[in-house]
Design a protein that fits this description.
Low-confidence stretches: none
Number of helices: 15
Distance between the termini: 48 Å
Number of domains: 2
Mean pLDDT: 91
Helix content: 25-40%
Number of strands: 16
Radius of gyration: 28 Å
Length: 424
């Protein structure tokens, strides 16, 4: 028997209500903050991610799904959402649009990593990017958008952490300080961090191993090495966040996992789980567009893994709306009535009324049980007498009341019944 590949999962019908709920909130929020949807290909040139994310990141060295196509091109399944958005921004000349250009996406992401709760090799992200503006007020707005997203879902007791990791002008001095700090502690570092010490020391602060975290606690703080411009930017971000009454905390060890970040980085974490189970995060990437061949273009973005959001909705027992059910179930008695039922179902659907139609050869009692199991409140019954008279019997499965309705008036009757039910 075939099974879903390790690290992937089927989103079954009983789970769909959570996903549609999250997607609806994401779309509504994007509209409120002025973001337009962008869908990019599932796979891209592998070089796009190596250049943007960084050759020495775990994503590029260990987690990307890469393959050659029949033309010999090296491609990669999308391991994150920002680089494709930036590629599209450049390819389609969006720098000529009013800036910032605000784009959001709902997309499948692929990373070969150890599966765990809320983390899959194929997972889904909601993300948004604001490209073309360096104003720290935009940083605060992006962070506020992310915060309001989780609030709109009903997830509570979240923690908001921010930091600044400087720019390519002031960061080298900080990286030197980190190297000096960790070089005296190499015996306690995990194997990955021993490699990072020479190639990517900033990532040492992000390691989840206990021994490495101990060294990170006493590590130099990036805020002490910010240049005047980065320091002023970070101070302004905090001023705007205070104005928005956002309950942020500065976390000097917060760096995020991608090399393209500059200046502001932030993360939103659920209660009691820490950074490894962050619900979402993001930051500035002011050099990325230029790295990909464009003009210097400031930008900032955010992404959230939807599986983790679903997990936290369940943990906090957030009630989500159920998915729409058929407005009516049609039952029939006999072959001639079945033919009329098929025609009636088609007519109702063309008038915007969702219909579940009985199938097979079953007794009326069995068909009503099926309607009940589908939680259909209204059942239309057609038999020989109804065909002769051009009517149907409309049965309320809650009150058990029945009424005779002409087929010509059935659609209007069902719509009025639906309105009454909706209004209570």
């Amino acid at each position: 028997m075939y099974k879903a590949p390790r690290g992937t999962s089927d989103i079954l019908s009983e789970e769909q209500a959570y996903w549609r709920y999250i997607e609806a909130k994401a779309v509504d929020l994007s509209r409120l903050y002025g973001y337009q949807r962008l869908d990019t290909p599932v796979f891209e040139d592998a070089g796009l991610f190596a250049r943007s994310i960084g050759d020495n990141t775990d994503i590029v060295t260990k987690e990307m799904y890469t393959f050659e196509d029949r033309s010999g091109n090296l491609l990669a399944l999308r391991p994150e959402g920002t680089a494709p958005v930036c590629r599209a921004y450049l390819e389609h000349g969006m720098s000529n649009l009013p800036q910032p250009v605000k784009l959001y996406y709902l997309a499948a992401i692929f990373r070969y990593e150890r599966p765990q709760a809320g983390r899959y090799r194929q997972h889904y992200q909601f993300g948004f990017e604001a490209i073309g503006e360096s104003d720290p007020a935009l940083d605060a707005e992006v962070i506020d958008t992310a915060w309001q997203f989780f609030g709109s879902l009903g997830i509570k007791q979240l923690s908001l952490y921010i930091n600044s990791i400087g720019c390519k002008g002031c960061r080298p001095a900080y990286l030197d300080a980190l190297k000096q700090h960790y070089s005296t502690r190499t015996s306690k570092l995990c194997e990955d961090c021993k490699t990072r010490l020479g190639k990517n020391p900033l990532r040492l602060l992000d390691c989840k191993q206990v021994s490495c975290q101990d060294a990170a606690v006493s590590a130099p703080k990036g805020a002490d090495y910010l240049c005047a411009e980065c320091g002023a930017h970070f101070a302004a971000v905090q001023k705007y966040l205070h104005a928005l009454n956002l309950p942020f905390q500065i976390n000097n060890r917060l760096v995020r996992g991608l090399d393209y970040y500059t200046k502001t980085v932030f993360e939103i974490q659920p209660p009691g789980e820490g950074a490894q189970s962050a619900l979402g995060g993001g930051g500035r990437y002011d050099d990325l567009i230029e790295e990909l061949g464009g003009n210097p273009t400031p930008a900032i973005g955010f992404a959230s893994g939807m599986e983790r959001v679903v997990l936290n909705l369940k943990r906090q027992e957030v009630s989500v709306p159920g998915l729409p059910k058929p407005d009516v179930f049609i039952a029939y008695l006999g072959d001639e009535a079945k033919l009329e039922a098929v025609k009636l179902a088609s007519d109702l659907r063309q008038n915007g009324i969702a219909v579940a139609l009985a199938t097979g050869v079953r007794s009326l009692k069995s068909q009503l049980r099926q309607a009940d199991s589908l939680d259909n409140k209204q059942v239309v019954i057609i038999g020989e007498e109804e065909i002769k008279r051009g009517t149907v019997t409309l049965r309320n499965m809650v009150t058990k009341e029945q009424q005779v309705v002409s087929q010509a008036m059935l659609g209007e009757t069902l719509k009025q019944s639906h309105v009454r039910e909706k209004n209570g």
